[in-house]
Amino acid sequence: MTKEKRNRGWYGKLDKDGFIHRSWMKNQGFPDHAFDGRPVIGICNTWSELTPCNSGLRDLAEGVKRGVWEAGGFPVEFPVMSLGETQMKPTAMLFRNLLAMDVEESIRAYGMDGVVLLGGCDKTTPGQLMGAASVDLPAIVVSSGPMLNGKWQGKDIGSGTDVWKFSEAVRAGEMTLQDFMAAESGMSRSKGVCMTMGTASTMASLVEAMGMSLPTNAALPAVDARRMALAHLTGKRIVEMVEEDLKPSDILTKQAFENAILANAAVGGSTNAVVHLLALAGRVGIDLTLKDFEIGGEIPLLVNCMPSGTYLMEDFCYAGGMPVVLNELKDKLRSAKTVLGGDISAYAEGAECWNRDVIHSIDAPLKPAAGLRVLRGNLAPRGAIVKPSAATDALLEHEAEAYVFENIEDLKANIDHEDLPVTADTILVLKGCGPKGYPGMPELGNMPIPAKLVKEGVRDMVRISDARMSGTAFGTVILHVSPEANDGGTLALVQTGDRIKVSASNGQLELLVPEAELEARRANWTPEPPHYTRGYAKMYIDHVLQADQGADLDFLVGKDTRPVTRESH
Q1: Full 3-state SS string of 479-531
Q2: How far is CA 3 from the centre of its chain?
Q3: What is the pTM of this model?
Q4: Is the pLDDT reported for residue 568 higher than 80?
């Protein structure tokens, strides 16, 4: 017996309420038969001119609509908040949970049977998935896709990764400001997300590895006609998913999350994937912890893309993309259902690699055991993370004195002082940049190298904070220290001159200060006053969980699949 469509509660009633729902929709020119009980498919669009990564989504929505109509559905596009990582202050991460609320409540309030999530820029993909998973209607993702390779002075350049390198070169006097400004115009040559393996492309890759999109979604360039064709096929497939009642809860199993962790290691993915996967798992009731990320520790790096490698996402696409990576991981992947209804192994069938310098084989990887490392100790009792594939190997085992910046203003005011008492061995520590502290946990963990050391040729140091870092960034950067300083974590007690020990191989992060001294410091510690006292930001500070729990809001964990029963008329 076919399950009655959810939209019948809006468009199937032969009474005043049904009249209102149908009649007002008809002012857009929809004919009677659009309301004949066919699946209503919401197209959740984060298009915005203020989110350049997502600026192609208005076109992709038309492709989705074609597919929905072809399959006998009724497509309806709706907007939600758009999070432009490169444009928003204080940080887009502050608003990921607000986007998730917007998506969840929009899906719940409107008469749709399934939803296509159109996103791309870093926080839009996880925010949309969190919201959709919380309602648990059939859902599928179409990513905006990466930009074309950047070009400057006859070579490829990558968004984010080369920005950091160019900026340090200017500070060191190795690059002119004129060249720096010229590179700006060549960096972003088309619509789309960062063409490095930053957070946006990482999340698109993990969505594919989790089976929440069609194959090849991750790497097709934003302006490639094949992405429009993919949107069309996705629109067709979501109608079938509604008929099959195939929901996120059927796909987002523990095995799917484990596949995402394995894939993240293989592609050299962003550290931001950790907080997003933890938050998403909380929405679908999966017991995912930082310990689970340790399964990626022994996975080799296969994808030679910036910031962990040399190439860019356009090259990754032409080499075969995620199907090739999944094929290389086939003996390690867990069995898990996908939006196609079958097992994730089907995504790898017939995958061929066209460039082994871009996608290495698992038998001849780019780097061995390159997955994220989880660190613990008295400095991070609930955990911290580091990305070995983007770090300096020699610094992953390190002990030295700390130099402490109490907040981001302290860092900006002092990092370039010529008399800053630091050496290349010093461990830089930044406080006050966690979920509550900034607020929103900004991408400031990859602190700049002190100017006097940059001039000496130093390009990497151990850096520790409760912040995040851009997926396009690189360096020996220890992130997401939990609990954060503003929540009373040990990080708040670190003083300049304290010795810290880091051992990635042993998963260790220790502040080498006697416990009695730490207790005395704790007794004299007072938290920094909140930076925001009203609106959503205040609600965020009051309710945000720590990084090891995904930095979701405490009252949003879990889902609510109850039907809406009250009418507004």
Answers
A1: EEEECCHHHCCHHHHCCCCCEEEEECCCCEEEECCCHHHHHHHHHCCCCCCCC
A2: 35
A3: 0.96
A4: no
| pLDDT value, residue 567 | 76
The separation between the first and the last C-alpha atoms of the chain, rounded to the nearest angstrom, is: 32
C-alpha distance from residue 402 to each of 453, 519, 522 (Å): 15, 19, 18
Q: Which of 3-7, 54-58, 127-131, 143-147 has the lowest mean pLDDT?
A: 3-7
Of the candidates 116, 120, 130, the one whose C-alpha atom is nearest the C-alpha of residue 77 is 116
Let me know how long the chain is. Answer: 569
* Full set of structural domains in the chain with CATH: 38-149+189-348 (3.40.50.2300), 151-187 (no CATH), 373-531 (3.50.30.80)
Which of 36, 485, 2, 477 has its CA nearest to residue 272? 477
Which amino acid is present at 64? V
pLDDT score for 528: 85
Arithmetic mean of pLDDT over the chain: 95
Alpha helices in 159-292 (DSSP H): 161-171, 177-187, 199-209, 225-244, 248-251, 254-267, 272-284
What pLDDT, in 10s, does the model give residues 139-162?
A: 999 999 999 999 999 999 988 788
Whole-angstrom distance, CA of residue 255 vs CA of residue 263: 12
Dihedral angle computed from the Cα positions of residues 48, 49, 53 and 57, in that order, rounded to the nearest 10 degrees: 50
Q: What is the 3-state secondary structure (H, E, C) of 135-152?
A: HCCCEEEEECCECCCEEE
Residue 145: CA count within 13 A, CB half-sphere: 28
